[in-house]
Fold this sequence. Notes:
- The two termini are about 30 Å apart.
- Helix 7 runs antiparallel to helix 8.
- This protein has one domain (about 5-335): D-amino Acid Aminotransferase, Chain A, domain 1, CATH 3.30.470.
- It has 8 helices and 15 strands.
- The radius of gyration is 20 Å and the shape is globular.
- A hairpin with a 2-residue loop joins strand 14 and strand 15 (about 250).
- Helix content is about 30%, strand content about 25%.
- Strands 8, 9, 10, 11, 12, 13, 14 and 15 form an 8-stranded antiparallel beta sheet that branches.
- It is an alpha+beta fold.
Amino acid sequence: MTSVKEFVIEEAATPDRLGRGRFAFTDDYSVFDWGKMPDPIPGKGASLCAMGAANFELLEREGVPTHYRGVVDDGAVVPLDEADTPPREMALDLSRVPDLPHEGRSYDYDAFHREAGDNYVVPLEIVFRNTVPVGSSLRSRGSPTDFGLDHETWPDEPVDLPDPVVEFSTKFEESDRYLDRDEADRIAGAADIDDLEATARTVNRLVTERAREAGLTHEDGKIECIFADGRVRVADVVGTFDENRFSYDGQQVSKEVVRQYHKREQPEWVAAVDEAKARAKDEDVADWRALCERSPEPLPEHVVEAMSDLYTAGANAYLGRDLFDAPSLADAVDRVREL
């Protein structure tokens, strides 16, 4: 089980055969890698399921292999447009996730791949960026000129990139870290690093185009993949308001809204999280949460309601369909501007 969706195995994968299973999306949310936060956000799970399904179906039409099989509607696996109500479950092909042994923060990927064979979840997240907001970690990994920008220093405002940037980070380590291409290639195992990058760029292009049609700006996101039958397939969930950052008329329409809310309203907890992560790194400890001296407080009811409207109204706009009982996206955005 992940922090925001439950993972149901119906038929386990084997070294030479994909399995079958489902994601059951909950209304829970997670920020700063904390895991399940105190409050559910009504409608969030179904909105992510619907957006993810729509994007998987878009990718399949464009010839991009995925692990998606359909959404679950009244017990049957169907395409999204045949679901009469907002779906909460997604049917999937499953690959294997071998153990990743570690001592402290040193991880044994050779052992992972010895067990993985040629049917496994690639232990990477492939991140793509179209913009560089203030506070983006990309700013700490290079100067503007490194990414084709005509600036000597990073400006105090978001910057559009001339070409999307693709990066690789770890997936199964307790604290994610960005990797250079050689280390990412080694960690990917039999999955070709060029194929992973090309797939990420295709996903980014298609989601960006779909978002533009809905009046949204697609800023950044990520994919996760499986390697099976000698090819890379897009896995997990793609192009949702949790995996990606979107904006509408300059306002964030994504989990970033509640992330920034916590930074403003619970700075002591956010600082404690940062301190715990830094301490874990210094002490070579994998589980930083055990070192965190604070826990997050629940959200006020009006924030939960505003976030619920944002997720469902945003999904309606992205799908081009009134699947959810929600206000217009413009009205939902105006409400979260006031948070």
